[in-house]
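This part of the workshop introduces the protein records we will be handling. The structure tokens are whole numbers drawn from a learned vocabulary of backbone shapes. The record below serves as our worked example for the rest of this section.

===
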Amino acid sequence: MCGSSFVLKTSDSNTTEAKLDLNARVVSGSIITGIGLSNLNEITASMDLPTMPFRLYSKKHDAISDMWKAAAEETMVNAAKQEIEAAKSRGDINNAGIAMIPVEADDCWGKRSYKNNYSALSGVAAIIGENSGKVLHIGVRNKYCVMCARANKKGQPARPHKCTKNHSGS
């Protein structure tokens, strides 16, 4: 409305250190705020910016998820090392020389109603070091994968994908 214009680059080709180009940063922001592609495209369209195609969003989402997973794993390994050192400095080691780390754990498997069995299809658990208060392990269990379910409904084998189903039973 002000008549100004500007150039918006989606990546900076001059730096090799930048891990996230503009598209990846936008997708990261959408994940953090809990919106998906549709909401993101509504926002960008209202600012007269180009919308993002599903394939690009999906590619950036997968890359960001992998980076976050690697960062979380590294953080948990470092937290475990910190807990081990604290236990050793207190002399909390068993006969085999293994550090005895006090931990707290919690888990949940939601109860959600879609008018059938009142059980959600996902659960999560975390183990936290009692001394540091840092997360040592987190585990997610899923009884459902949309890709597998769609293929099964069509009576076909699922195409190669990152399957999220890693649990069955109660």
Summary: The chain has a mean pLDDT of 89.
